[in-house]
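tool_call: predict_structure(chain=1)
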Amino acid sequence: MASIRSNKNKGANLQKWVCEQLARVGGFVFDNQDDESLIASRRMGQNGTDVILRGKAKEVFPFSFECMSGESFELVKKIEQAKKNQEKDRDWVVVHRRKKWGNPIVMMDWKTFESLLDKK
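tool_result:
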């Protein structure tokens, strides 16, 4: 069984990975040491979404991200957490990484998915 510290490290690493991917896709610089960075990974144990978006990054990505890394996954619990932490006028997104899956998966409300398709 994995330790609590190990699980938190996996979660923090996924949050950082999500930030790096968003920065790459959006053309932003990700620097988690810069308190003014447009994209940042929230420290473990703090309230709020796992990925902090500011300024232009918040305009480009209209989502509130919750991240979870691990072999077990309580879908209902994670979606409830995402909705609880969802910022005003943002859509919730859950990113989950499981070692044997390879790439992380993304979960969102169907209406959000449809709106992304409509923009194409």
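agent: The chain has four helices and five strands. Proceeding to next step.
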